[in-house]
Amino acid sequence: MAKTKFYYNSHTLKYEKVKVSLWTKILRLTGVLSCGLLFACILLFLGFTYLDSPKEKQLKRELNKLTLQYEVMQNKMDQANAVLKDLQERDANIYRVIFEADPISPDIRNAGFGGIDRYENLKNYNNSELMIKSSAQLDQLASSLYVQAKSFKELETLAESKSEMLASIPAIQPLNGKNLKRGISGFGSRIHPIYKIRKMHSGIDFSAPIGTPVYATGNGKIIKVSSDHGYGRHIEIDHGFGYKTLYAHLSKFAVKKGKKVKRGDLIGYVGNTGASTGPHLHYEVLKNNRSVNPVNFFYNDLTPGEYAEMLKVASQVNQSFD
């Protein structure tokens, strides 16, 4: 029961009941409720701002765990990328050099993927940047691994034919013996014996007596047995793998067009036919139909010392024989 309040009336010298109007009661009640509501809002604000509910605490733990897993995955992908980069460098600078294959272009290795909205579903999260970065790096890693796997498959095929390639690439001198004192005119700019001007000499000339045997320098197929004013009697061999060899100014042929030969097989004899100023063999090596220096292919039948002497003699700027 509510307590009755009295006040002392100085005029009547009596205690009289305090009479509170309904409106005053309503105002007081409203004030109390307002203060209570304000206090409750403050408590709720502080609670939601600084205090986590059990569910929020669980979600934050899961988020922290997920962020940590992303960071661990990022580190592992960085390590995988480092290993892949090393494999790519070995592929381009070692493996493909050994098998004489063209390196894979950076455009293919770094080919893009997807569209601009590929990671649209990962945006607008607290860790969107981390998730997008990791996803993009993972996609790039998968793409690079696919390209590298195809490259290794190609190298595997090349390795299976490596023994055939090694037997086919020109690797010996076309003339028997190692007498480096005989006349040699090498590859490069040389004085033409007839016109007496410098011209590109696309092969190497070996001075030798007429009738000296000429041998195939690698396995291949005879694709040309012909005679003309320039090369005289000459033979061309297709060794495959982009290699061809030419033997010019012969006196006689020992093979016919279409015959398959092996390294060291007799194919003809030294002569003085065509535009020649003396008995000799003009020998050329072509890689992808471009003349290359034949002296770089005499490594199978010369010792290191003999090969060094051959390089020295062939590099001398002198007059060619054709």
List keywords for this structure.
single chain, 322 residues, alpha+beta, Glucose Permease (Domain IIA), 3 domains, ten-stranded antiparallel beta sheet, two-stranded antiparallel sheet, 6 helices, 14 strands
Could you describe the 3D structure shown?
This protein is an alpha+beta fold and about 325 residues long. It has 3 domains: about 5-50; about 60-160; about 185-315, Glucose Permease (Domain IIA) (Distorted Sandwich). It has helices at about 20-50, 55-100, 105-110, 130-160, 160-170, 305-315, and strands at about 5-10, 15, 185, 190, 200, 205, 215, 220-230, 230-240, 245-255, 260, 265-270, 280-285, 290. The strands form 3 sheets. Strands 3, 6, 7, 8, 9, 10, 11, 12, 13 and 14 form a 10-stranded antiparallel beta sheet that branches. A two-stranded antiparallel sheet has the order 1-2. A two-stranded antiparallel sheet has the order 4-5. Strand 1 (about 5-10) and strand 2 (about 15) form a beta hairpin. Helix 2 runs parallel beside helix 4 (about 130-160). The longest helix is centred in the first third of the chain and has 45 residues, at about 55-100. The protein is rod-shaped, with a radius of gyration of 46 Å. The termini are far apart. The relative contact order is 0.10.
